[in-house]
Amino acid sequence: MREDLDGLKALGRTVRPEGGYDPSLLDAFANRHPERDYWVTFTCPEFTTLCPKTGQPDFATLTIRYIPSRLLVESKSLKLYLFGFRSHGDFHEDVVNVIYDDLSRLLKPKYMEVVGKFAARGGISIDPFVNGGTGAKYKALARKRFEEWNGVR
């Protein structure tokens, strides 16, 4: 077994998340290629959170993309973390910002974006997008991606 994976809490174990989302579930491990820029993309097509007013479920396809620096997020811990939102009530815009903040704090990536494509309720869908980068190169990428997302030329 790889030594850098020994400290992971969820991988290879049966873990059932308690109620509510919990950022302490997130695990990270060393990036073996920190000198190289590459994308890591997670797509969660069955993401669920609760409306804070009605308690009704809101469904989304959640996409997390990042260019890692020194750390990568372990996927099972990410799944458990995301499952916690099933019993967490918050607005769509808050949810994507909370996920962005928690992962940014853990990973300190070169660049990251989180997109929620929520199913329509009442004839309207909400698709929040948040992104950011570190250093001039990745801040420029963040600005470009943000403008592309918003149709700015």
What is the gist of this entry?
This protein is α+β, with helices and mostly antiparallel strands and 153 residues long.
Detailed description of the structure:
With 153 residues, this protein is of the alpha+beta class. The protein has one domain: GTP Cyclohydrolase I, domain 2. It contains three helices and six strands, in the order ββββααββα. Strands 2-3-5-6 form a four-stranded antiparallel β-sheet, sandwiched between helices. The protein is flat, with a radius of gyration of 16 Å.
List the helices and strands and how they pair.
Elements: E1 28-30, E2 40-50, E3 57-67, E4 71-73, H1 75-83, H2 92-107, E5 111-118, E6 129-133, H3 135-149
Antiparallel strand pairs: 1-4, 2-3, 3-5, 5-6
Structure keywords:
two-stranded antiparallel sheet; alpha+beta; GTP Cyclohydrolase I, domain 2; 6 strands; 153 residues
Q: Tell me the major beta sheet.
A: 4 strands, antiparallel
What is the straight-line distance between the termini? 49 Å
The assigned CATH architecture is 2-Layer Sandwich
Q: Could you name the ranges where pLDDT drops below 50 across 5 or more consecutive residues? A: none
User: How many β-strand runs?
Assistant: 6
Query: What is the C-level CATH assignment?
Result: Alpha Beta
Shape: flat
CATH topology assignment? GTP Cyclohydrolase I, domain 2
Domains, number: 1
**Class based on secondary structure composition and strand pairing:** alpha+beta
Helical amount: 25-40%
Q: What order do the SSEs take from the amino end to the carboxyl end, as H and E?
A: EEEEHHEEH
**Rg computed from alpha carbons, rounded to a whole number of angstroms:** 16 Å
Residue-averaged pLDDT, rounded? 90
Main sheet: strand order: 2-3-5-6
**Residues in β-strands, percent:** 25-35%
